[in-house]
Design goal:
The complex is a heterodimer of chains A (about 110) and B (about 150). Chain A is α/β, with parallel strands linked by helices. Chain A has four helices and five strands, in the order E-E-H-E-H-E-H-E-H. Chain B has one domain: Histidine kinase-like ATPase, C-terminal domain (Heat Shock Protein 90, 2-Layer Sandwich), CATH 3.30.565. Chain B has a five-stranded antiparallel sheet with strand order 1-2-3-5-4, with helices on one face. In chain B, a hairpin with a 2-residue loop joins strand 2 and strand 3. In chain B, helix 1 packs antiparallel against helix 2. The longest helix of chain B has 22 residues. Classes of the chains: A alpha/beta (about 110), B alpha+beta (about 150). Chains A and B meet through helix 2 and helix 3 of A and helix 2 and helix 3 of B.
Chain lengths: ~110, ~150
Amino acid sequence: MSVKLNTRQVGDVSVIDVSGRITLGEGSSTLRDALRELVTKGQKKILLNLGEVSYIDSSGIGELVSGFTTVTNSGGQLKLLNLTKRVKDLLQITKLYTVFDVHETELSAVRSFS
Amino acid sequence: MPDNSRPVARTVTQSLDSTLDSVDSAEDLAVDMARKAGFGEDDLVKIGMAVRESMVNAVVHGNRYNSNKKVRLSVAAGAGRFTVRIADEGEGFEFERLPDPLSPENIMRTSGRGIFLIRSFVDEFQIRRLEPAGTEVTLVKYMVSK
């Protein structure tokens, strides 16, 4: 299954529910486009819900890093929610787990935005 | 843990186009053969990802999507080893001088983690230049505990 995104608002936080595979090609470019669109619209608080992501490759990891940098450079915050064990393991292997602000519940994630 | 009681000795070789569809098909083939060889789900994910990253390197960075260049794939299960070889026909790269993706200056780079991940997911990893052109990687996952 390729990647699917659904964007919704929770207060002033934009939540992107991601499902499927974030891999080189359509998967990573779809995520990139969605994040850039939100940044262009002036969104400063973005939460990526990765709970339904079944697979992510190095290109997908690169897109998470790119998205983090894009949002941060625009003065915003990008946080991660509901990591699966596989995604968490990958972020730990690549030492990126501590770079991202990761939350296990949407409530705590939304509240954490300053 | 693989089921070592299964007598498995099979090799499949393919010549693939330099497309992302080939990346998917190579991953599917390797995972299917690994599953039949008795690997568990965690190892199947690691094998699949190692093959996927290697295929991406061959198609994207090696052959650069060139329709005149092929990727040779070989998957072999037997003798306690699950072996995948992937060779491209590209100009090659200086794999001895790949930057460390874990170093602080590289941690926020958006690329450069592929070979690091491959090494993390297999028991043996070899890479070599081919003459007159190309790069071949060999991935080995042990089918028995060493």
